[in-house]
Amino acid sequence: MTSSPLPTAAPHPPAARPAGGGLPARRAVVRWAVRLLRRELRQQLLVIGLLTVAVAAATFGVSATWNLPASSDATFGRADQLIRLPGDDPGASTPGSPPRGPGSARWT
Asked: What is residue 43's three-state secondary structure?
């Protein structure tokens, strides 16, 4: 006896689905996001608060520094000693030689 294949019904084409999952997937993602937002609300508020404080402090510091009056120390410094190094005498700059010339300091 020969076996013959059983007749089968024509397969139904699969229902056309959107590539991204459609509305049910979108609804699930929105529910997941809302659940995460509720669960981590305190941490998110803390981070936003700390960022706000940091930006406010930086803004205050920059504006306070910008509005400070000019000081002569910024230009001339606070030095009260003067050392003159003559540039026209090449022998004065050799190591080990004693300082020479007017205004040269004697280091002890």
From this structure: helix
